[in-house]
Structure formats: C-alpha cells, structure tokens
Write a structure and sequence with these properties.
alpha/beta; seven-stranded mixed β-sheet; 17 strands; about 10% strand
C-alpha cells in the first residue's frame, strides 16, 4: 500500500475502528447489494397543478393500490380496498368523514390500523429494516416497528400486538398513528423522485409544489425553461420578470405573486388601469377559466397587456446589449406601422389584432415611459427581496441541475440541440462555440455564477443568460425557432406564429442521432435511455411518447389543464422498478374534495415499456456501484488491520 493509501485508511478507521466493525459493515453493504432496486418515479411539466401532482405522489402512480391488492388479494371487497386507498392518500380528511359515521370508533381504529400495517409491510419488502426505521415518524418508531415485525404464527405474541393497538386507542393517539402509517406507506411507495423540469407557470400553485418538494425524502430536479425564467426573475432580470408577471396575469394567477410570494403588484395594477383605461385590450383575453370576478378579470387583462408591451421593450434592450445572442429577429416593435396598424415580420406584412399602444413612442419604441420604468424598478426590488421566492430558488440550485445521469438514464427537460443531419449543433455562449454536454456544463456553470459569483459583472452576464436560456433557439431548454409571444398576441396568421422545433425532435426515432447524444454524454447507446419533457405529446392525435425503440421517453402529457385539450390526457408519469419501466397515462383529477368524499382515484392506464429478464438489484444501480467502492475500501482497511499497518482501537 502507498503512503496516501495508508493515510486514507487511517481516516476511514475513525468510523470503523476494528476488524469487527469493518467486517460488520462489509456484511451489511454486501447484503444491501442483493436487495431489489427501489422504485424511481419520473414526472415533468407539472406547471403549477398541485392537486393532480400531489395526488399522484400520494398514490405512487397506482403503486399503493397494487400494494393493497398484494396484501389482501380477494379478502377485501373492491369497495373496502377503495376506502383503504383513500385513507392512505388523505388520512385526516378521510377520518373526518368516516369516524362520525362509525358505530364503534374503537373497532374502526383497530381495523384501520391492522390493515395499514399490512400494507406498510408489503411496501417495505424491498428495503432494509434500517432504511424503513429511518422513514418511520419518530413519535411512533417503537410502535410501528413492533407492529410491522408481527409474525402471524407467533401465537404467544398475539395478545402483545393487540395490547399495543389497544393502548394507542386508549391514550388518544390512534388518529395520529393512522396518519403516520399512511404517510409511511406513501413514502415507501417511491424511493426516489425525478422532476424533469417546468414546475412553474400556467397553474395556480407552483409555490405549494416547491414546499412539498423541499420536504421530500429523495429527489432531483432538472430545470425547465419555465423554471429558469423564474430563477432569472428572482435575480431581478427584467425580461424574466416581465414574462413571469405577464404569464401570471394571462392565466388569471396573479395570486401567485400577491398571496404566495407577497409581491406587491398594486403599483402595476394602478398603472395598467390608468394607461389602458379606455382600451378594450382585444388581443389579451385570459387563458382557460380562472373563475375571477368581473373586476378581477378586467384587471388581469389590462395588466397582461401592460406587461406584454413592457416585455417587448425590455427584451429589445437586452437584444441590443448582447448581439451574440442572435435574437435580433425578436425585436418587432420598430417594425410596426402605427398609422396603418400593421407589422412586418420576415418580409411579410400582417395586420395587427390590437392597434392601441398608448405607451409606445414610434420614434423610440423600446424606451420605457417614466411610469413603466417606475413599475419595473418596484418589481425588481420586490422579486429580489422576496425571502420565500429566494428560498425556493436556492432549493432549485441545491436539488437541481440542467441534466442528470442516473442509473443509465439521461435526464434533461427539453433537448440536446442537433443539426438536421443529426450532428451536435454548436451554440455561441459569450464567444464560445459549444455543443452537447459541453454546452450543458457551461450553461449550468453560468447559472450558478449568476447566483454566487463574487464578481458583479459575472453575476450580471449570468443573470441575462438565464433570460437567453428561456427563449433562445440555441438553448437546450427551449430549442425552437422562436418564442412567438408577439405573434401569438398581435398576429392572426398561424404561419407567423409557428415555432419550429429543433431537429432533435424530428430525430427522436433516429438510432444513430440518439447514439451520438449518448456517446457525447459518456453513455453506452445500447443500454442507455433519455427521459425528457417540454413538448406535449398529443396522445389524442396518435402521438407516441416512446421513441427510438424505447431508448427515448418523452413524458410531457399535459399536467397543465391548459394543455389537456391538446394532449387528450392529464399527464404522464414514468415508473422504474426492479421489474422494468412502466409508463402511466393519467386522466384528470376532478378535485381533492371529490377524491376524498367520493373515493375517486386518478384513473391511469399503465404501459410496460421494458420488462427485464432478471430482476434489477441494488448491485446493478449507481448506488450499487458506490456501495461496491465502499466495500473495496473497507476490505483494504481489513487487510491493513490484519497486516498490522493500522492498529485497531475501541471507540470511546
């Protein structure tokens, strides 16, 4: 052994100070390698739809119901299984309904606890006792562990287990135990969660999703373009702020800013109602049915138009500041003929759908009026000083990244930009020509620099690059020909609105092109898989999320209610367990209230994407590879002890 080896092993000996302790750990880790791999759960493009996402987390995309079936077979009726499943998903709400109706409260608790323990035992089967123990709420650690280790054949202990349940009921802790068992089942159903981008925008509760994820036991996040634009807004980037506020108004979700994040929009509302007082804002109707009052609807419409105009202005200023961004074609205000009410785009003259622009000076169209400047300064300060928003964005940085390689899966939100021939497309990032993994790595470095660099100029450039990542054709998070916000509002011609996808999307079934991507990321094309989202899969039109013989899975199925008419479903989730990959397509959730009161679950159709011949063990995973390295190190430590190179000692 080298001197550096001995030095490392001496450090390791602090944790394992004897042959006995090192041997015990080797035995423990070797046993873990032979357990089935835990269940991974993938979701993308949640877009603020907390109720549906939360329900799918609670039911494990159908996994909890399967555990109930495994635990009870035909010994429970379908109605009893449905009631038990609802209790597991929503324990407090379900107990509030069932207990007042129960003839015998003690009997109800006894039955519920007995059944929940059986489901917990079924769900814990692939985990070590120590891992299950760590998942059990501390208040019930002893009780739940004892109940879960019950042996039906141990006749002498039946009274013991019955006494535990009876004492729990007598001490008034039964409801808390029921809830603890339900939450434990939910946790055991999903070992690790992957969020493949776009938590924010469109739906009403991205902040609640973020709070939920911050308390989740094991997860990673790949940033989507709708997440990146919120990250930029949190740093005070004007283009990002303009989009975020405009989009909240467009979907009738200004409460996200006001109530969830405490961002004062009163100055903006006052400005919008004044500047556009007599303007019908004909091109700025709201998306969906946000159930606003008539007054709220008017305010949202006018704020939406006010922020759209401000967005077009500030984006023009950013484009002028960074010619290398290559976004000059997105400057369109100066192409408007205000007298004729037309705009020229790509050499074609279009009539505007809305011709009222009281704050735009045709001689200097990208200059903010003093009132607009005041609005933006206040919004910058509000976003940058919002503690809750900053906490959520820091969590993005802690748990997230632009891409992740995990158990042979390459996870990213949108794409790896490609040329039409399938080769990696080079993109200019502040003078560097980058493609593929190198592009991703540099962009992530710049994102973190925007938040943490001690250099003010580096922070500024990184912050503005976040805006570029939101909407640039070269950004792997967007990868379309243009962000057609201007055209969507102001031009009726659908051809002018069309956003052409990067060739990556037309080459998803091209084995050679996908193999090039895998090789660039250092992965084996024969055994690797891409999981991404971003572009909704139009299931109702026959589109298939499974591409390239199962090597690519595109899992944006429309969590966002605004996209469900387009996709025909209400979201995909992907489940990877020891038996293979299953893709679940979900129908809409009516409401949480309906799920509780009428015991409605989200109906999901499950499709086996891959079934492995040999059950996948922990040894076959990235975690297994790390455990094998630890075992090798511990084996070296054992050798050092036995050769007398390091002295054993007892821990104090």
């Amino acid at each position: 052994m080298t001197t550096s080896d001995i030095r490392y092993l001496k450090l390791l000996s602090r944790s394992f100070p004897s042959v006995a302790k090192a041997s015990a750990e080797i035995i423990n880790l070797s046993a873990i390698l032979n357990l089935p791999k835990g269940t991974e759960f993938f979701a993308s493009d949640i877009h603020g739809e907390y109720e549906a996402f939360s329900h799918i987390l609670k039911n494990g995309s159908g996994s909890v119901r399967m555990k109930i079936d495994d635990a009870f077979g035909d010994t429970l009726t379908p109605a009893e299984k449905r009631s038990l499943a609802t209790l597991i998903y929503y324990p407090r709400e379900k107990m509030a309904i069932d207990l007042p109706r129960a003839d015998d409260e003690r009997a109800w608790y006894t039955t519920a606890i007995t059944r929940l323990v059986a489901v917990c035992k079924q769900a814990s089967g692939k985990y070590t006792r120590s891992k299950v123990r760590r998942a059990i709420p501390a208040d019930f650690a002893y009780i739940i562990e004892e109940l879960m280790t019950e042996n039906n054949h141990a006749v002498n202990k039946r009274d013991y287990y019955a006494a535990i349940v009876g004492a729990v009921i007598e001490t008034g802790r039964a409801a808390a135990l029921v809830e603890a068992l339900c939450l434990l089942t939910q946790r055991l159903a999903i070992d690790h969660l992957h969020i493949v981008g776009d938590i924010y925008d469109r739906g009403p509760e991205p902040h609640t999703i973020m709070d939920t994820l911050m308390g989740y036991h094991s997860l990673d996040i790949q940033w989507g373009n709708h997440d990146i634009v919120w990250m930029g807004a949190a740093l005070g980037q004007r283009g990002c702020i303009a989009h975020v506020v405009r989009n909240c108004a467009r979907y009738g979700n200004l409460s996200i800013l006001e109530d969830a994040y405490g961002i004062n929009i009163l100055p903006l509302a006052s400005f919008a109602m004044s500047a556009y007082a007599d303007d019908p804002c004909v091109a700025f109707g709201l998306k969906g049915n946000p159930q606003l009052t008539e007054r709220e609807h008017v305010v949202n419409v006018k704020i939406q138009k006010a922020m759209a105009v401000i967005q077009f202005k500030v984006e023009g200023q950013i484009i002028d500041e960074y010619p290398s961004f290559g976004l000059d074609d997105r400057k369109l205000l100066h192409r408007i003929d205000f007298k004729r009410g037309t705009v020229e785009i790509d050499g074609v003259v279009h009539e505007l759908t809305d011709k009222v622009f009281p704050t735009v000076d045709p001689a200097d169209p990208y200059r903010l009026t003093p009132e607009e400047e005041n609005v933006m300064r206040r919004l910058e300060q509000a976003f940058a000083s919002c503690e809750k928003l900053q906490r959520h964005m820091r969590f993005f940085l802690k748990a997230g990244s632009l891409y992740k390689i995990y158990n042979g899966n390459l996870l990213f939100h949108a794409s790896v930009p490609l040329n039409a021939d399938g080769t990696l497309m080079e993109v200019d990032v502040f003078g560097q020509k980058l493609a593929g993994r190198a592009l991703y790595d540099e962009l992530e470095r710049r994102v973190r620099e925007a938040f943490f660099s001690p250099d003010a100029e580096a922070r500024r450039r990184g912050r503005d690059l976040l805006w570029w990542m939101w909407l640039s054709p070269g950004s792997p998070l967007f990868a379309k020909s243009k962000m057609a916000t201007f055209e969507l509002y102001l031009v009726a011609d659908k051809a002018a609105r069309k956003e052409v996808k990067n060739p990556f999307y037309t080459l998803l079934d091209d084995e050679q092109a996908m193999a090039n991507v895998f090789r660039d990321f250092g992965m084996d094309p024969e055994s690797s898989r891409i999981v991404c989202g971003h572009v909704p899969v139009k299931v109702k039109d026959g589109e298939d999320p499974v591409k390239c013989g199962g090597r690519v899975l595109t899992i944006d199925g429309g969590f966002s209610k605004a996209y469900q008419p387009t996709t025909g479903i209400a979201g995909y989730t992907l489940i990877s367990n020891s038996y293979g990959f299953v893709l679940a397509a979900h129908e809409p959730l009516e409401s949480t209230r309906a799920a509780v009161e009428r015991e409605l679950d989200i109906h999901s159709s499950r499709r086996v994407v891959e079934r492995v011949e040999k059950r996948t063990l922990v040894a076959d995973t990235d975690t297994g590879a790390e455990l094998k390295r630890q075992i090798a190190d511990l084996q070296q430590l054992l050798d050092a002890y036995r050769q007398g190179l390091i002295a054993e000692r007892e821990q104090s």
